[in-house]
Amino acid sequence: MGKSESEMNNKQIVGILFLILAIVVVFSFLGGCFYVVDPGERGVKVILGEMSSEFIKPGPGLKMPFVTEIRQINVQQDTREVPAECYSSDLQQINIKLKVLYRIPETSVVTVSRDYAGDPFDKLILPRVQEALKEVTAQKTAADIVKTREQIKISALESARTKVGTMLVLEDLVIEDVTLSKELEDAIEAKMVQQQEAEKALFHKQQAETDAETAIIRAKGEAESIRIQGEALEKNPKLVDLKMVEKWNGVAPQVVGSGANNILLPMGSKP
Predict the structure, then answer these.
(1) What is the pLDDT of residues 137-190, one digit of tens each?
(2) Cα angle vertex 236, ends 233, 238, to 5°?
(3) Of 114, 145, 115, 121, whose CA–CA distance to 45 is shortest?
């Protein structure tokens, strides 16, 4: 009799345990047994406080009872606006506003989730981009920074990529605005005006020199022409008569006066 009661008690205990387990499973199911990793994201399982070493691809999945969390990490390209306060080589303060294009590669999803707290952009990218930009601008004057944005962007991007490494992908930097102090802007504008005036004066000087050289060449040509004609007249005096015949208008001249005061008049003219 005692043996039967003992077996019944054991069966009751086992039944209660199964019932409790069934209730836990049901509540787990109702409380989020299934999960879905969205497109453009990768999931990371947290099992009893320990992170899985492999990421989960997009799609639905079944969360086991001991999986306490499914962290989802965006692996698509993202864009952030970044302010940077820099100084030029001539110790002028320059405020630069730029956009940073970056993404987290899926191979780094687990490492970023496990080893870094907070936003990976704020922790890993932002300080390195600002540092790279400050290093580049410190090598140029304020005027050069304004005139060579693209060059500064290329140098800063290359330096920032080296600092960030391969954990995150730095796609591009876009410099949107470069702000100078009012005094510095006025000084740069005045300097540019002076340069333009100097270039204008140089152009006028070169043009005057060119005109003078042209006039000299023309005068030399005319003198050479006169010299050649003089030599031709010396060698052939009849050339004067030929020139007169070439220019004659067909009217016979008349002679007025006598001796050295003779005047040739066309036929039909009155003296």
Answers:
(1) 999 988 888 888 899 999 999 999 999 999 999 999 999 988 887 666 566 666
(2) 95
(3) 114
Distance between first and last Cα of the chain = 179
Beta strands in the chain (DSSP E): 34-37, 41-47, 50-56, 59-62, 67-74, 78-87, 93-103, 169-179, 253-256, 263-266
Strand partners, 172: 101
- Of 168, 90, 93, 92, nearest to 129 by C-alpha is 168
* pLDDT at position 4: 62
For position 213, what pLDDT does the model report?
Answer: 82
How many C-beta neighbours within 10 Å does residue 45 have? 22
Determine the Cα–Cα distance for residues 186 and 171; give it in Å rounded to an integer: 36
Q: What angle do CA 160, 162, 164 make, to 5 degrees?
A: 65
Closest CA to 145 of 102, 190, 184, 196: 184
Query: How many Cβ atoms from other residues are within 10 Å of residue 98's Cβ?
Result: 24
Q: How many whole angstroms separate alpha carbon 179 and alpha carbon 98?
A: 12
Cα 83 to Cα 100: distance, rounded to the nearest angstrom: 10
- pTM of the predicted model as reported, rounded to 2 decimal places: 0.57
pLDDT tens for each residue of 90-121: 888 889 999 999 999 999 999 998 888 889 99
**Angle value at C-alpha 265, between 263 and 268, nearest 5 degrees:** 150
Q: Are 271 and 261 in contact (CB under 8 A)?
A: no
Distance CA 96, CA 86 (A): 7
